[in-house]
Amino acid sequence: MEISTMAVLPVLLLLLLSFHQQLQVLAQATQSYQDFSYMKFVHNATNLPQEEEYDYIVIGGGTAGCPLAATLSEKYSVLVLERGGAPNSNPNVLSASGFFANLVEADDGKTTPAQKFTSEDGVKNVRGRVLGGTSMINAGFYSRAEEEFFSKSGVKWERDEVEKAYEWVEKSIVFRSNLTLWSSAFKEALLEAGVRPDNGFSLDHVLGTKQSGSIFDNLGRRHGAVELLNKGEDKNLKVAVYATVERILFSSKASTSNVSAIGVIYTDSKGKSHRALVRNKGEVLLSAGALGSPQLLLLSGIGPSSYLSSLKIPVIQHQKNVGQFMADNPRNNIFLVIPFPFDPSPAQVVGITTDYFIESNVAVLPFSSTPEPFSVFPSSSSSSINLSVATIGEKFPGPLSRGDLRLASSSNVRISPRVRFNYFQDPVDLARCVRGMRKIGEILEAKSMDRFKYTDLQGQKGFLFLGSSLPSNYKTDDSSMEEFCRSTVTTFWHYHGGCLVGKVVDGDFRVMGINKLRVVDGSTFTMSPGTNPQATVMMLGRYVGLKMLQERKGSK
After folding, report:
1. How many of the other CB atoms lie within 10 Å of CB of 362?
2. 3-class SS at 496?
3. Which residues pair with 77 in a beta bridge?
4. Are the C-beta atoms of residues 218 and 55 closer than 8 Å to each other?
5. Could you give the angle at the alpha carbon of 388 between the alpha carbons of 443 and 460, nearest 5°?
6. What is the pLDDT of residues 160-211, one digit of tens each?
7. Measuring CA to CA, which residue among 250, 246, 220, 276 is closest to residue 95?
8. Which of 4, 5, 112, 231 falls between 20 and 30 A from 380, CA-CA?
9. Which has the closest alpha carbon to 393: 319, 293, 494?
10. What gap in Å lies between CA 283 and CA 520, rounded to an integer?
């Protein structure tokens, strides 16, 4: 049953008073033992020359860009251009306890690590703006892609090399953390609800319930993609922070069939313009993410010619599919207020079926004088009392619904583009959401969840929900469940597309029709890989980097 907030208000007030001091202790982040060796590569863009030349230029020091740059630096000079700052300038990105703090923090439009935007569907979202990218602001869960992702990607993967690339990442930054009280109970509830078998600990995508890896260690310290830069070659790698790439430069040859990327123009935090050029046989590598990569292609003149001309952007290459096939995996969930003091718990366990995936975490929310985390809760939710809140959410493969991306400014790259994801446009997506949320209802009925129920003043037991609970007739009424899915949709932050393989780039991630230019990030994906994409995005950076090194070696 559902218990109202008012019925347990006296109890909640007593709880708040009793562990106010504990909340303050939990908010303290520890930063020791994290490997900041990569800082030897990092320079503020204001200190770089007005013009330089490198073998490779990586646009975006994010989840894919960091492993890509570190790999290429083994043999060649690499410049990474990251629009955000270094992690140590934003302490909240360094710990699990800072996850919600990043989403609460007001976006200053320049340096805050979580850049906020709202899709044209009306769903709040964020994108990473910090060295290490979204791996520095996410929930930390690490799980590999399913077989379907590889078979539908349009890439002829060398699976032995894929395995090695995953392992290269995992040896550095992936941990098997001890299960928290909540995660243990959630795992048992999944099994009680029939999400079987129990697969124990596994990094692979396997049907059933499993504990997976995390980029948080057992002390809650984050080890994001930025730490993969530690594998870079000292003499070859340079990373510029607060370096915003304005556009890609191309050769001025008259023949449009032989256009090549030759470098980029970027500005530093003081507004000064710089040019970075690539040497012979070098390349420009776009790893700016599912919003940033298609945005930069459009701003640089690669996209639908009529659209670019209407914005007075000189057309370099007509490419009708840039910015198309955008998708975001909708997140629908319920939020439970835990009736006793609770440590934060990152996502550690997942239930995997062919239809949907179910994950959970716990956050200790700050008091009501502080805004709620941006893009986490539905717009309709509000609470005047803040306690430990457990989220149980479902995601489904794909999705099949697609949208598109358009420029909000034809000249200012700092303004996030307009994007529409068209959540639940495809009825298959909506049906999967209904089935996934019904499974969450079964999870709530599990005996292992009983300890998280409240007892109200009349002695009745039930969960206290923050925001919407499932409809009372959720087991039988499809229409009420479909409306629940539509009205409570939020994001899993797993958006992708805009530069799809076979549409914008080829199977080697080269931009079709342009020499010396590739896109290496989640914008090339036709579907979100696995339960959480970061494992595969980091693998991709390493994998493509190795392939490029092999190509250069073979061309000598």
Report:
1. 21
2. strand
3. none
4. no
5. 60
6. 999 999 999 999 999 998 999 999 999 999 999 999 999 999 999 999 999 9
7. 220
8. 112
9. 494
10. 12
